[in-house]
Amino acid sequence: MKRKHFKTITTLKAELVSKGFSKHFVVENGQILCADTGKQYVPCEVRVMECYHFQGTDARPDNSYLYAVRCKDGTQGVAISMYGMQGSVQLNQLMRQSKAA
User: Fold this and answer.
1) 6 and 52 in contact (C-beta within 8 Å)?
2) Alpha helices in 6-45 (DSSP H)
3) Among 100, 2, 1, which Cα is nearest to 51's?
4) Predicted local distance difference test score (pLDDT) of residue 61
5) CA–CA dist 25, 3 (Å, integer)
6) pTM of this structure
7) Residues whose CB falls within 8 Å of the CB of residue 9, separated by 6 or more in sequence, listed in order
């Protein structure tokens, strides 16, 4: 399979939106929340379809992960984890508990 290179999270997110991954997911109260619909999901209801890692170019740690996810009810979207943010640590933990595609 040929891998595409994305220079920024913004260009990748636009590509995923064009494929139907249009919702935005965040962590709230230990669950994965669709910020667009307000619906909460437990990890077993979420499948990580794709995961992308972005690494900063300067000396300080600057890592981000973008997850393309599909929920049990068919809702699709993205969740973005930024280095050093507490919510991102929780998001990464929940995504590890989710099903991999």
Assistant:
1) yes
2) 9-18
3) 100
4) 57
5) 24
6) 0.79
7) 52, 54, 64, 66, 80
Query: Residues near 64 by Cβ (< 8 Å), separated by ≥ 6?
Result: 9, 53, 54, 80, 81, 82, 83
- Cα(24)–Cα(80) distance, integer angstroms: 9
DSSP state of 4: P
Identify the bridge partners of residue 76 per DSSP, sorted by sequence position.
70
pLDDT tens sequence for the chain (101 residues): 345 667 788 889 999 999 999 999 998 888 889 999 999 999 889 998 988 887 766 655 567 888 899 999 999 999 988 765 544 666 667 777 776 65
Alpha-carbon gap, residue 88 to 15, rounded angstroms: 22
pLDDT at res. 58 = 62
Neighbours of 98 (CB within 10 A): 20
